[in-house]
Amino acid sequence: MNWLRDLPIRRKLTLVIVLTCSMVLLLACGVLATYEVINFRQNMVRDTSVLADVLAKNTQAALTFQDESAARQTLQALQKEPNVVAACLYDEKGNPFADYKRNGAEVDLPAHPSPDGHSFDSGRLSVFRPIILNDKRIGTLYLQSGLEGLYRQLRLFASLAAMVLIGSVLVALVLSSRLQRPISQPILSLAAIARSTAENKDYTVRVPPVGGDETGQLTDAFNQLLASIEERDRALSDANDSLRQEITERKSAEERVQSQLNRLELLHRITRAISERQDLKSIFQVAIRTLEEHLPLDFAGICLHEQGDNVVKVVSVGIRSEVLAQEFSNPESATIPINQNDFSRCIRGELVYEPDISHSDFALFKQLVGAGLRAVVAAPLMVESKIFGILIASRRETQSFSSGDCEFLRQLSEHVALAAHQTQLYEALHQAYDDLRQTQQAVMQQERLRALGQMASGIAHDINNAISPVALYTESLLESEPGLSERARQYLETIQRAIDDVAQTVSRMKEFYRQREPQLTLTPVQLNPLIQQVIDLSRARWSNMSQQHGVSITVETELAPELPAILGIESEIREALVNLVFNAIDAMPDGGKLTLRTKLARAAKASPDTPAPGQIQVEISDTGIGMDEDTRRRCLEPFFTTKGERGTGLGLAMVYGIARRHNAEIEIDSALGKGTTIRFVFPVPETSEAVVSPDMVPFTIPTGLRILVVDDDPMLIKSLRDALEMDGHHVVTASGGQDGIDAFRKAHGGAEPFAVVITDLGMPYVNGREVAAAIKGTAPAVPIILLTGWGQRLVAEGDIPPHVDRILNKPPRLREIREALFQLVAAKS
After folding, report:
1. In this structure, are residues 342 and 378 in contact, taking their beta carbons and an 8 Å threshold?
2. What pTM was computed for the model?
3. Degrees to nearest 5, angle at CA 335 with 334 and 339
């Protein structure tokens, strides 16, 4: 009953009256409803019995003469009695003779009559009356009436009772709300004055008298208590006023002394804090935020000034000042003119204090006034008699800066200016040191790459000769053997790609120190299919070999859809990615996850209006051992390796060379124990013009040519001869430069001269240049094709031998040889 205890006294009195009236009315309604039910049932029994007696007399003749039709017709007269649901006429033996059921009523009539009388059961009234003729019982009449009338009467009574109850409650509520006021109002007034006195400490108020009953006695006692308290409070207030005045005078003196100490402490704190900073923005922020918190200020900022300019630039505002700065449209990096205004005095080295800027014409002061500021102090930042900035402080109240505040700001500006000047000197020295270090690292990197390129060029010839037969036979098998199985064809295509990559690697080993050659033919390269080729080429390392050592490496791909093509050399990019995959596998000796990812990114310097991303990124991520900062910085240097005797230190250097030739950047994210991510960042081509690959130019394969092949490598001679003979040519080989010259001169004087000569460049005793010169001296019209691993280099440096008609790179490709033969021999003929 806590809720009843907390109710106001007015509601308690009202609730008691309303509940009492409601309970009395409910009891009366219950008695009346019981009376109505009993009376209705008595009347219903009487009416039904009278009706049954009448029907009994009307059916005497039908029973006597056994006229069932007449009896049924007599019972049909019950249609006019809405309460009668069914009736049945039984003969003298108790068998049903005729019955009646109201339309739509489902009634089960008794099979035999019950004793005379009536009964209420299952919501109905059943009446059995005898049929007497000449003091002899000839049958029985059964009537069944429904109680719907009773229910209707009860519903009507309930509706009326509810209306009466609601109306009575409302009347009782209205009357009780008025009748309880003489009791509750004095108590409520007393409670309100007591609460007001406790809250406001005003003991002069009094409660008006209300009469001589108990409530009036309580009111008089409360007024006497207030009078006693008022007298004591007045005496205490007089003593407090005297003491307060004395304390105020002492505190005023202490505050003046403490203010001076606080300013000195604040100046010391700011000076110590800015001396620990090494950048201008940090120094300015420390000074401004400390001023905002401890001086305090409503707005604080620092502007910088360049000698000779007529403006100052806002470079820093405090955290609390940012909102105000936005309000008057003067955030960081805004400029303020300093023509003939108060700032011009400050630029000349004066401390400017404006106690009230409400009527100033200076544009900045108008903006400050618009933000609610009124007083401004501007202190110059000066070092060696040169002004390079201004410290601005402002408050909302006019005349709010004392002379001590202005002196403090002047001293602070000197300390801030000195710290800022030292920071500028430190930053200039640090920048010069960084520039020098980067220049030294670039020179060292270039020299290492140059040495590697010169060393690698010496072995290119032998490697090209070794892989040339493999390249020729692989291309020939793919072209001439249509019955190869799908798996065999895939294996040969993988071998062919690997050979192309090896050839490109050999040709690039001597080009580390060079930028991308302008004569290189760049073609569109789709990176997503290239990623799948890299996975296939490296599968033996990350799947088979790893499982042999009991290590599980999972390879996943996250490829961006609809990735645009880049311009580059597919074999070089593929080789670089395979190299990175191998390094990632080596970095996971206990297994892990290798992720190859492509995505689009906006260029770092792109504008927001750039319609397309400016960069395509390819990432190789592993969960391996990672690298420390020193290893990450040096990992691209030639001959630097962390693999001991297993490593050569050339893998990532080659990757770096490939990236430079494609104008791409390499980003390396790594930490010990957290794996490594190496990211290629390729620029998206500015134009969408497709570069036509040489493989797309149609030509007719020539046949029946007599060809002289000159080379010192027997395997290369054999593979070239087999390939050319499959095209229907007649091939003669020579194992050296002099043998080739002799064979050509001999055939030239006979009936079957050579239509074309294919010769190697690097041969002992007599090289390819001398062979070409000798043959052109004998037959100037015979075309000469030179095979060499330095083809692109010779073209780039303009070092093409004068007697050579076409240069082909090693290892040679059948299509390139056929195209050269077509252009040099067949097309001319």
Report:
1. yes
2. 0.36
3. 160
